[in-house]
From TrEMBL, chain A:
This is Polysulphide reductase, NrfD. The keyword Membrane applies. It comes from the Bacteria. It is a multi-pass membrane protein. InterPro entries: Electron_transfer_protein, NrfD-like, NrfD_menaquinone_reductase. It is found in: Cell membrane. NCBIfam families: mnquin_red_QrcD. Keywords: Cell membrane, Membrane, Transmembrane, Transmembrane helix. It comes from uncultured Desulfobacterium sp. Belongs to the NrfD family. The chain crosses the membrane at residues 20-43, 55-78, 90-111, 131-155, 176-203, 215-237, 258-282, 302-322, 334-359, 379-398. GO terms for cellular component: plasma membrane.
From TrEMBL, chain B:
This is Uncharacterized protein. It comes from the Bacteria. The chain crosses the membrane at residues 15-40. It comes from uncultured Desulfobacterium sp. Keywords: Membrane, Transmembrane, Transmembrane helix. The lineage of its organism: Bacteria, Pseudomonadati, Thermodesulfobacteriota, Desulfobacteria, Desulfobacterales.
Length: 412, 52
């Protein structure tokens, strides 16, 4: 039915099978749409957010997907600025994943701000000393950059490519991609950092507050480093999942191995700095604010186990696995290491957002718990479903993996 | 006050923040416009079409 739209020389499942695959994701997206309408019409009373938990599940999702979407800018930087040619075999996938992450996060923020009709206030009444303003500007601009990067991939669709004007425009865009990638790197660096900086300057919350360099708390640099360490791993996971579902090899091993190696070394550097940061926090920053380390973990479910899980299980272990060639060459171990790495980064964002707000600060404060409503979960899952839908459509109709035809020759 | 920022103030903070932002935006926009102009020139035969 849609065979004329499919890339040449590659196999795809039947149209009926594709629709069947899409149905559950579309159902989840519709569920999220219903929750979004409820939130927009009735207000944020549909959520369990409060004056204490102004940042909640949606912000965890946002910061998580933005960190994982960093694979787009970092892969683009390595491909076009550093000149790692082998990554051209995976850069399209990285760009699409980045686009999904950033557009999903932006859509979710549109619901989260409660009154999207006033969303432009943050640009018009810009408080330039606010980390959140910097984040808003950079995320919006970087989404624009990702759209510019995504357009040439869309224009490579078999039908669109037959239109001479679009064919030439797509290739002209390809030629300037180096400059676009460099601009994207600049924008991404600052918003990833400012997301971290936002927590580091919360001096009224000793659990999150940190010292720093000039106007930037150390969390600024840690968030940038953790994003570029985990983003490429998320790209690997998405690629491997696509290979598993399609039962094909889509990307040559040298591209995957390079991304995994870079990710491993960056993760190890991040772990060294993160452990140093944690020690300074335990022995200097927290005592100065009148806290002992264990004071933070007296109540509630968030115990020291979270520190151990983040630093050791999801930090040091995957770093060693990714740095060791023999381990990362094993497909199962590679995927495990990537999963642990991404889990660690999401855990880190969860700790900074939820645990920071839950832990008592004043002597008369008590531990506050928060459980999301179904509307919050629905919108969160809708973003995941949206990701599956966009990536599935892209894989079916666009030449996402340039080596697919070569790696999977059609018999006869 | 500038049309791009309602509460614009002529100080270093604003100039650095918006200067960097508009520099990045100008670079991206210029690249897209150049690609569009090159496309028009090539489609109408004013410049030699490159073989891809």
């Amino acid at each position: 039915m849609d065979s004329k739209l499919l890339p040449e020389g590659v196999e795809r499942c039947s149209f009926g099978m594709f629709i069947l695959w899409m149905l559950p994701w579309l159902a989840i997206l519709a569920w999220g749409g219903l929750a979004a309408v409820l939130c927009l019409v009735k207000g944020l009373n549909q959520t369990n957010m409060s004056n204490v938990f102004a940042f909640a599940l949606w912000i965890v999702f946002d910061l998580g997907v933005i960190a994982l979407g960093a694979g787009a800018f970092f892969s683009g930087f390595l491909t076009y600025v550093v000149g790692k040619k082998e990554l051209k075999n995976i850069i399209n996938a990285a760009v699409i994943i980045g686009f999904i992450c950033y557009s999903g996060a932006t859509a979710m923020l549109g619901i989260d701000i409660g009154q999207p009709i006033r969303g432009w206030f943050i640009f018009w009444h810009a408080n330039i000393h606010s980390m959140l303003v910097e984040v808003s500007f950079c995320i919006t601009c970087y989404l624009g950059v990702l759209i510019v990067e995504f357009v040439p991939i869309i224009l490579e669709n078999r039908k669109l490519d037959q239109i001479k004007e679009l064919h030439i425009f797509g290739h002209n865009l390809h030629h300037i991609m180096g400059v676009i990638a460099a601009s994207g790197t600049f924008l991404s660096f600052f918003h990833q950092g400012s997301l971290g900086g936002m927590f580091g300057v919360m001096y009224g919350r000793p659990f999150a507050a940190r010292d720093g360099f000039y106007i930037w708390p150390w969390t600024f640099f840690l968030f940038v480093l953790s994003a570029i360490a985990s983003g490429p791993c998320f790209t690997i996971i998405c690629t491997k999942l696509t290979e598993l579902l399609t039962r094909k090899k889509l990307v040559p091993d040298n591209a995957i191995q390079l991304l995994a190696k870079v990710s491993g070394w960056l993760l190890s550097l991040y772990m060294v700095l993160k452990i140093a940061d944690t020690l300074v926090w335990i022995y200097d920053i927290a005592p100065r604010a009148g806290f002992k380390f264990m004071d933070f973990y007296r109540e509630g479910p968030y115990g020291v186990w979270m520190v151990a899980a983040e630093l050791f299980v999801c930090g040091i272990i995957p770093a060693i696995m990714l740095m060791t060639p023999k381990i990362r060459e094993n497909q199962g171990m590679l995927v495990t290491a990537c999963l642990l790495n991404c889990t660690g980064i999401i855990l880190n964002r969860f700790v900074f957002i939820i645990v920071t707000l839950a832990i008592p600060v004043m002597p008369f404060d008590r531990f506050l718990s928060y459980l999301p409503t179904w509307q919050e979960w629905a919108i969160g899952f809708a973003v995941i479903a949206y990701g599956f839908i966009v990536f599935s459509l892209s894989y079916r109709y666009l030449p996402v993996f340039p080596k697919e035809r070569e790696l999977n020759p059609i018999a006869g | 006050m500038l049309p791009f920022c309602f509460e614009w103030v002529w100080n270093v903070d604003h100039i650095i923040f918006f200067g960097l932002l508009y520099t990045a935006l100008t670079i991206v926009a210029t690249c897209v416009v150049i690609a569009a102009i090159k496309t028009v020139m090539q489609v109408f035969g004013f410049t030699r079409q490159r073989h891809f």
